[in-house]
Structure formats: structure tokens, C-alpha cells
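Hi team, as promised in this morning's meeting, here are the two structures we talked about. I've kept the exact order from the run log so nobody has to guess. The first one is mostly here for context; it's the second one we should focus on when we meet again. Sequence first, then the predicted C-alpha cells.
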Amino acid sequence: MKSMIHCLVTVALVVAAGSASAQPAPGPAAPAPAPGSAATPTAGSATPAAGSATPAAGSATPAGSATPAEGSAAGSATPTAGSADGSAAPAAGSAASPTGAPGTATKPAAGIAWYDVLANKPIEEKGTFWMPKSVNSAADDSDLMFYSVLALSAFFFFAILIVVIYLTWKYRHRPGHKPQPSPAHHDALEITWTVIPTIIVVFLFWYGWRSYIHVVTPPQKAVEIQVLAWRWNWQFTHANGVTDSDLHVPAGVPVRLVMTSKDVLHSFYAPAMRVKQDIVPRRYTYAWFLATKPGTYRLTCAEYCGTSHAQMACQDVDKHTGACLRRAVVVVHAPGDYERYLADKQSEMMNLPPEQLGKMVYEKKGCNACHTIDGSARVGPTFQHDWGTSIKLSDGSTITMDENYIRESLMSPQAKARPGYPPSMPSFQGQLKEKEIEGIIAFIKSLK
């Protein structure tokens, strides 16, 4: 038995020594290429495959070496483990991971703006069973109220249930037991079950009323954003005229939303902000919050508004199934980045070629929720192959789809409607700049 154990130990030592000798020592022998250097191997070059003699994870990387740490800026030149081309994939958890699970090193699409990369990041959903973690300074009171009422309700429910079950069992009818006389009056008991619940209810009312007044009274110096809702999209208009379907706000600064609808009832709901406010046609409603943590958070419409309610403000649609891949979100910017977003977004809108600007408007204004560009019909007619052709209208007449028709359809959608489609398209009168209208025309023209 001892000889067998000795033999096994010897074999293990030999194998361990052999595997250790095959591992090159980290350091100068295999320096990481500098970002953007010509030494980065191209696809098809002799890059070692996964499982080759690459230093194992957790090896002693010298401090200050060229290997970027986890969470470093996008564009680091360190090849990902097992990559076949050795391309400069960003490190795990970097800002260039707009999609996928947190920590994946997904390279952003070429030409995508940095603020769209933030909007495409996975939504932060960490929290309790009941709600995501709050990132609104005004939400602590409402959370405390919620959990207090929940705890009180659970306590009294189970307390009363246990007492009822116990008394039912104790005073059940049994042979040889005569019923006992019931007490008619008990001052101490009646005072107790009257005074204690009254104190609890009055305290809950006072605390809830104080919290409500705080929630509905925005600070004087708040960033004001105009919100317009329609079927089925959001439009957020900032102070410098920039519009977007995603809500971008600064962290650490109060934000006031002035909201209205152009068609039916909607409801602005941002769970992480604990903000939910109905949006009513032909009147204004208001909400405010102070975001405390930069990140990407869920935004949804909480009022059923028609066929595509579940796809409200869909930003990306699967071409094969029509399923919504990403909806509008709330993006909370770190200090200074919100001002940068406003400047860069305005510059982008003014400098894009007409066709690209039209495509951006098509996606940001929610046109893709109703109109496809692949020939398939949805809520509205497709844009593919219609440019320059004669199309039939609901009254039986025909018209050529040209610049005049598209412009009129944007301003007065029902003036020359197509047969077989519901009259659900809203008017964009006063919501599109002249350059954006020209961009939409150029984009549809490119689909012929």
C-alpha cells in the first residue's frame, strides 16, 4: 500500500513539473502590445489558440504593466483569451460593452456614439424581490413606508391567524364540556385595541403625507425636460433643443419632467427612480427626481395605450420575428457627461449626411415600430420599394410617393391614408426640424 502511494505521488510531481516548464514566465518575454501599435496580430496570423501557452489567469502580472485592469477604458489592445484573430477587444466590464451580460467584452459597433453605448448597456436590475434598488434621493421615504406597511400587515395577519386557530381549537365542542359564559365587556382590552391601532394609523398618515409633499414639490433649480408621449414612443426635449427617445439626465442634480400626450393616456414609469405619473392628452402633468448613481435604468409605459403598448419606444427590432430587442431607457450621466451629451448630440444631428440622419430619426422617433424597411407589413405600410411608385389611397385614387407626399404624410397622416391600415399615426407637426424631414425623405428614397 505504501509503495502504491509513493508511486502515485511521484507521478503527480513529474506531471506538475512538466506542466510548469511548459508555461512561459510572465514579463518581458511576452509584452502586451501598445494600443494601436502595428504589432497587433491580424486575423489569420499565428496567434496561439485558446489553451496555448498563455500565462494562467491569476498569475503575477507586474504592477504598472501594459495589461489593462478589468474595467479599463474601451479600446485597450489586449487580445481576449481564446480569440482567433487577436483583435483589440476591450477588457471585461469596460464602457464598450453596450449589450450582453455585465462583464462581457462586447466591442461596440463602428460609428456608434458614446451616449448610445451607455443606452445599450444592460439595465441595472439589482434590488429586492419587490423592487430594484433605488437611485433617487427622494425614494428612501417611500421605500421605508412600503416596507413598514408590508411588515405591519404581515405581523397582524399572522398574529390574528394564530390566535383564531388557537382559540378555535381550545374552545371546540367536546363531549363532557359545557359551554362557558362569554364576557360581555372588558375595558382594558377595548382601550388597548383602539389606542394602539390609532397611534399606528396616525403616524403612517403623517409620514406618508410628509413624503408625498416632498415627492410632488420639485426644487426651484432643476433641469427641466419636456416629455411628449404618443403611440408608441417617447420624445424627450432638452433645454438646447436636443430630442431623444432615451431619457438622459445628470446625476446629483434634480430633474423636472413636464409631460403631455398627443393621443391617448400613457404613464411614465421609472422603477429605479420610484417615479410613476400618468400622462394625459391636452394637459400637463409633472414629476421630478434626483438620480444618485450613474447607470442605465428601465423606463416603461405603465398605462395600456393600444396594440404596441408592450413595445413602447422600441429602439431595435428583430428583422425576422419583429420582436423588440431594446426599449427606451433612463441614462444617468456622471457629473459633466450630461453637458457633453447635449453638445455632442446637437452636433451629431447637424453634421450627419441626410440619409444617415433620416435613419436615426426613423429609429429614434419610433417609426420602426409601425413601418418596416424589409417589405413586410406591420401596423403601417413598409417603406421598401415604394419610392417613385404609384400607391393606392383609401378613397380609391392613386398618388406618386415623392417628397411632397412624404412631407404631407408627416404633418397630416390621415390626409392621404393608405387602405388596410388603422388611422393610428400621429402628426409630427412642430416636432421635426426641416433638416430632419429632408433626412427622412432621403432615407426612404434610398430604400427604392
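And here is the second protein, the one for discussion:
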Amino acid sequence: MITIEKKEDKPLLDREEVYAIVKEKVTPSLTSMQEEIANKLEKKKELVVIKNVYPRYGKQEASVVAYIYNSEESLKKFEPKKKEKKVAVEEKK
């Protein structure tokens, strides 16, 4: 279960920064969190980038920082290529 804590609009970077809390027994995969955030905010899954996941020691929750871009052009412009490879590898699992 993902709860959106805060959203910040960043017009210069053409994206929104989303801060969320994930409450699960096991921290979900990046792709499942990406899909769930996209569904909750009614955005395309391809435009959502999970930047950081911070599990909380002793609790069954994690803090998540995600970026939601407004277009694919801005996504390609600002995101490093390594992140794309990491998501592709995780989808194969």
C-alpha cells in the first residue's frame, strides 16, 4: 500500500517530485512501486522514475522518492541512462 505524503511541482525540470510511504511486509520491487504510483496519480508508467527507497529499520515501511515527468523528452533529457538499464534488468527477473 502506497500513501502519497507530498507532491512538489518543479517547472524548470518539467516534473513533479512525489514523496510517499510504502507499508508492506517486504519492500516491493521498483517496477511494482512505479506502476502503483502511476495508477494512483493517473500518469503513464513510463514517465515515473523511482529515485530512492529508504526502508525504515524495525518497521514494515519504506520512504520513496519518485519523479514524474510531463513528457518523454524531458525524461530523456534529465535522467541518466544507467537508470533505464537497471529497470530493464529488474523487469527480466
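Starting points for discussion:
The domain at 2-92 is CATH 3.30.70.330 (Alpha-Beta Plaits).
The first strand starts at residue 2 and ends at 10.
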